Input
Amino acid sequence: MDKTQKTQQKILRAARTEFLDQGFSGARTQAIADRAGVNKALLHYHFGNKEQLFRKVLERELIRLQDAFAILNSEGLPYPKKLPQFSSAIRRIATREPGCIPFLLQAIRQQPQHLPQPLEDLFSLDQFRAQIRAGMDHGFIAGNSPDTLIVHLLALALIVPVAGELIAALTGQKGPPQFLDQLPEQINAWLAH
Output
């Protein structure tokens, strides 16, 4: 990585933190430049204005999640193996880049106009949906709505990195409770008849 790329990465990390801490409207480019240890002119040189910088941060964080979502849509993997692998991929992202998922959730809530349209093009789940539908039709998976099940599965997979500390506090444990490691396998057991 050359000096320019290192500078850009520092700015993007600082911007994600600032946007996460202050929200889009409260974030200031001077504060981002200060966090990154660069001057404001250099920030504007690399990324233009605050909106362009926000879009670049959003794009970078969405790309991190693409590989995780690709697991759900892979054709060669049976659905019972997808959820544990997806959940593990999400946890790796949350561990390596702790601000990624909270930033994305905040961006979706506060700045949805900046999301790529349609978002489904970025995170297509057609193959996963078809597998769930086939499992439901054959009685291997409980329920009758693949989309409802997908929303629940995504919520359960995302709860660990987003609310791990809350769950730990509620269960009286230090750090995320151990049962969270087995959550994907437990979900597969719940889905089966």
Observations:
- Residues 146-171 form the longest helix (26 residues).
- The mean pLDDT is 84.
